[in-house]
Every structure is written in C-alpha cells, then in structure tokens.
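Batch manifest, entry 17 of 40.
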Amino acid sequence: MKTSESDVVISLSPSKIVKIMKDPVKSAKAVSLVYTNDRESDGITRRKRGKKYVYYYGDERIKDQVEIQRINKLAIPPAWENVWICGLQNGHLQATGIDAKKRKQYRYHPIWNALRNHTKFYRMLQFGYALPQIRLNLEKDLSLKTLEKQKVLAVVVSLMERTNIRIGNNVYEKLYGSFGLTTLKDKHVNVKGQKINFSFKGKKGIYHDIDLKNAKLAKAVQNCKDIPGKELFQYYDEDGKRHPVDSGMVNDYIKEISGDDFTAKDFRTWSGTVNALIAFKEIGEAESDTAYKSKVKEALEMVAANLGNTATVCRKYYVHPLVINLYENKSIKKYLDELDEIEIDDGKAGLTKEEAIVMKILENEKL
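Output type: structure tokens
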C-alpha cells in the first residue's frame, strides 16, 4: 500500500470512524472514494483478443493507456466470467466477476482495503453486540437433524470459535500443503466419545495438535467424518449429492447469522482481544515501568499460542490496541478487578464474563 493511501485513512479521527463505519456511502466519501456497485453503475467490460483483453465502455473501445493500465493493475483472473469493471478510478469497488467455482468475487480500491483494515478494531464493538445472536443461530443450526449445508457450516464456525483454527482455503492447500478447517481431511481428526483431536500442518508449516471436549460437536464431527470421501466437512444437498464446504461458504454463512458484514477474521480478532485480557489478568502488573514492555510481550506470546500466530502478528492484527494501551498506562486494573466480581455467567447476555469486560472497555475507552 502506498504511503499516500495509508495517510488518507490514518488521518481519520476515531470519532469520525465510529460515525461512518456503519454507512458505506459515508465511509467511501470520507476517503475521497465513490461508493459503487455493479448493479446500478455502468461499467467496463472485457473481450478476449488473442492472448490479451480489450476493454469497452458500452460499445466504445477504451484506448486511453492510463485507463488500460489501471484496469490491468486490478489483475482480474482470466477464469472470471461476467466481469464488471468500475468506470471510475476512485470507485470503492473496482471490479467483480464470477470465478471458476461460480462464486462472485470482488476487487476493491486500495484505499478502501486500507480503510477496512484500519477500522477492523472499531468493528469489534459491533461484533460484540452481534455475538449473542450469532451463537443463538449457531445452536439452532447445530440442532438440525441432517447433514445439510446449514448444519455443517454451523459445525465449522462453532469449531472455529472454540479452537481458533484458521478457516483455510484451497489455494494454501495446493501451494503449500497447509490446512485450515474447511480443507481438513478425515485423517486430520480423531473423535473419541466427547473428545475431538485435530492434528494437521497449518499456515507457514506450523503443526497443530488441538484438543476439544464437547459432546454435541464431537458427534457432529464424527458424522461428518463418516461421509464418503476424504474431505472432512461435506454436506448433502436436496438430491443427496455431497459437496465440500469452502471458505466462501463459511463467510457467507457468518454474514447470514450475524446480519452484518462479518467474516472469519472477526472471530479471530475477537478471540485475540479476549485472550489478551485474560493474559494480562494472569501475568499481573509489572514491578517497574521498564518491565511493562516485557510483560506485554509475554501476554502477546500467550495469545499467539492460542491463535497459532507470532506475538508481532497478534499485536498488529488480532489484539485491540485499547487493551494493550490500558495495561501500558496502568489503567486496566479496574477492569481486571471486575472479572473477580463476576461470580458466574448468567447466560442471559450470551457473553462470557471476560467478553463482557471487553465490551465495557470498547464502549468506554478511546483509542
């Protein structure tokens, strides 16, 4: 990302971000983009000419080299069909198309991607509000009797929430032989009674050996494993045909059960932040100002062990900076003390006591 692109986003004040983040039109305008879509906006189409593509706006062929260079930089895969390309250089959505698996794909403006990355920590408050409903919907779909699509996707998301295993994708499997939940094979899991063991090579060649005890999920995973074929998570359609799940299906399902634009990554960011709060509670206050730095690193390493990341990656992407700031500024004690005051989870809010404190921090503290 160019410096100018990041500067546009970083210059936004926290109060501005909170105001615009639920409104995509205002969000785009705040960073000098135009909110566009491929249904209402006239776009550019492409046609194959030999080994190259030529581009048309309506019936008129585009010959402007600057415009052609912009389109080429989008790196739209040749396999995409029904390609729509935004006619505006500053459109928030630059291109859409249907990939080889008949899934709709998107190419966004670099500034829009930067904005989404920057606001993800602000998204956590909205995610926290949505989490109880997400969990209710998961329980409802887990109760389905047959291994239909909704049931298997609910199993995958429930496992992801409890184990922090990455969602995975076919590209990483093919290129690196690494796996995530959606690409796991039957050989990667062992079920004994209420216990599930996952053993596989994950991203960056890191081997994972993860145990989970949950009677309902253990039964569901075993049922998935019993489906013919090597893929662990498959579902049956109305005609009784089996299909493997993929990351796109999982993210679409998360959007459906949350009623918002959340993805698997939001679960990891939430988990990273909650685990950071737990880690700071466990390691306690530092004895001196100089010791705080090493204590923060220690806490982040504990979070990294849960997420399968490095401490650096966790701090940059998966732990809300507010929690770290509160610890470094010696202001976190009042929140940690509240953890001791919450005796048991009443189950009414759909959040654990640690999650409830994280929500209180997000609602009351400012970056």
